[in-house]
């Protein structure tokens, strides 16, 4: 199997230490807030699962999907102390930059 990346680098939109706004209304059955703020503590690549059953298979990936771990601001959003460990694997669509 061969994996080809046509670009020399792929950069995540958010990095560790960034302050972000998190839309959590879709993450919980009964969310304590609709939107909170927090800090990104982890960035990982949700690399697509690839497999091959033939000898000369090639995959070309032009982009990667990133996932984020966020520490909620429990000072301004105190109810997040109870559920903060559930913000370890957020997709990019749940986050926006704090301006």
Shape category = elongated
**Structural class by sheet pairing and helices:** mainly beta
Distance between the termini: 43 Å
Beta-strand percentage range: 25-35%
Query: Percent range for helical residues?
Result: under 10%
The mean pLDDT is 90
Count of helical segments? 0
Please, how many domains?
1
- Strand tally: 7
Contiguous runs where pLDDT drops below 50 for at least 5 residues: none
Profile the largest sheet.
Answer: 5 strands, antiparallel
Order of helices and strands: EEEEEEE
Q: Give the C-alpha Rg.
A: 17 Å
Strand order of the largest sheet: 6-5-3-2-7
Give structural notes.
This protein has strands at residues 2-4, 19-23, 35-45, 58-60, 66-72, 90-91, 95-97. It has 99 residues and is an all-beta fold. The chain has one domain (1-70). It has a 5-stranded antiparallel beta sheet, with no helix packed on it. A two-stranded parallel sheet has the order 1-4. The protein is elongated and about 55 Å long. The relative contact order is 0.32. The model has no long low-confidence stretch (mean pLDDT 90).
């Amino acid at each position: 199997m061969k994996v080809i990346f046509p670009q020399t680098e792929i950069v995540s939109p958010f990095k560790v230490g960034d302050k972000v706004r998190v839309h959590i209304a879709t993450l919980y059955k009964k969310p304590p807030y609709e939107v909170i703020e927090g800090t990104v503590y982890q960035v990982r690549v949700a690399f697509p699962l690839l497999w091959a059953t033939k000898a000369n298979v090639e995959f070309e990936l032009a982009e990667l999907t990133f996932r984020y771990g966020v520490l909620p601001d429990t000072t301004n959003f105190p109810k997040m102390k109870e559920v903060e460990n559930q913000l370890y694997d957020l997709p990019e669509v749940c986050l926006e930059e704090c301006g």
